[in-house]
């Protein structure tokens, strides 16, 4: 792409560094901003820089939070001894949306992925082990995505916390509610048969 | 969406104001920026603000340009008397990419669209008419998209410049090179028969 302006080229380049945004889309976004009042671009730049510079994480669960302890960790009604291990804030939001979970979270900030240069040291695994060691945490639910990286991460944490006698589980994998069996992949369908649940339990929710 | 941080919510909101970007995508982009070095967010914010504040348009064709006269208008090899009327800079880039056009451009900055509150006064139509009046422009090629708004804009400009005896044309509409006839829409196919070209001409390029 040949641009008639360096300023334009630079703005398009920086936007196209974001994941899933190519040069064409970046140009479309920049031209949109040019048609809007200056204040919109100012607010956008300011909001991004502000977030990046002022970002803080909850001291207990490592979720993004404006205060030392996030709302969930600060809520005395939530069970401190039950911890759900997730990858990032989106998973916390998704589980909170269900309204079914009453424990705490622990946000790892990623998964172990040697190919991307992410080892256990890059993730918030150590603080979780400390909480288990202190006896604060009695049960851990693994809610990472079921990829090789997710399984590796689960297993790594499991090996660290198992000696302390903590209860561990992973969220159930199975056919989504409302899905047709014929379209399910065989791994999921196979697991859903192996890990079948008593019929009475399925009536509960 | 419930956010655990006002800073995060604000950044997601501002990004989701861009066209085609919803809250989920905005959150994904923001989380990506948080995983990158601070400098990337700084560069992005700076590039956007810089563009928005310093943006300049070519005095002759109204294309985005860092200097008074854009590279095309300043090039003595380009025909000043032939002007291609386009909507925005993307159209200029697309036509320049073909390497077939040797004239100037005139960037309108949009199309007449009463529903969006865009009248002829909001577009750069007046300066084009002045150039025709002065006798600088001898031929105009309309290259707006063939929608109702595009056709209206073409006709509005045509009525203004026609009295000065300027030659006007629109780019050819027809079946794209390499396309199958059976998939073409009937309007395009119909026009391509009405506006057929001598076979010898089709051998040229």
UniProtKB/TrEMBL annotation, chains A, B:
Zinc finger (C4-type): 58-73
UniProt keyword annotation of Oxidoreductase present: no
Source organism: Zhouia spongiae
Function, as annotated: May play a role in DNA repair. It seems to be involved in an RecBC-independent recombinational process of DNA repair. It may act with RecF and RecO.
Toprim domain span: 81-176
Family: Belongs to the RecR family.
Protein's gene: recR
InterPro entries: DNA_Rcmb_RecR (IPR000093), Rcmb_RecR (IPR023627), Rcmb_RecR_Znf (IPR015967), TOPRIM_dom (IPR006171), TOPRIM_RecR (IPR034137)
Keywords annotated in UniProt: DNA damage, DNA recombination, DNA repair, Metal-binding, Zinc, Zinc-finger
The protein's name in its UniProt record: Recombination protein RecR
A family per Pfam: Toprim_4
Keyword DNA damage: yes
């Amino acid at each position: 792409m040949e641009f008639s302006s360096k300023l334009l080229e630079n703005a398009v380049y920086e936007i196209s560094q974001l994941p899933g945004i190519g040069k064409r889309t970046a140009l479309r976004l920049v031209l949109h901003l040019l048609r809007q009042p200056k204040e919109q671009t100012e607010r956008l730049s300011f909001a991004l820089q502000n977030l990046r510079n002022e970002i803080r994480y909850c001291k207990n669960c490592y979720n993004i939070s404006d205060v030392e302890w996030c709302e969930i960790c600060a809520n005395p009604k939530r069970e401190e001894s039950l911890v759900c291990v997730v990858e990032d804030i989106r998973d916390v939001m998704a589980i909170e949306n269900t309204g079914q979970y009453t424990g705490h979270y622990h946000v790892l900030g990623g998964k172990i992925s040697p190919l991307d240069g992410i080892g256990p040291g890059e993730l918030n695994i150590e603080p979780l082990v400390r909480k288990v060691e202190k006896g604060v945490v009695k049960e851990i639910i693994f809610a990472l995505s079921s990829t090789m990286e997710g399984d590796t991460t689960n297993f790594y944490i499991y090996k660290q916390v198992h000696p302390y006698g903590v209860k561990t589980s992973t969220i159930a994998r199975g056919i989504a509610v409302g899905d047709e069996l014929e379209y399910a992949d065989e791994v999921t369908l196979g697991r859903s048969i192996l890990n079948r649940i008593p019929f009475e339990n399925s009536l509960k929710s």
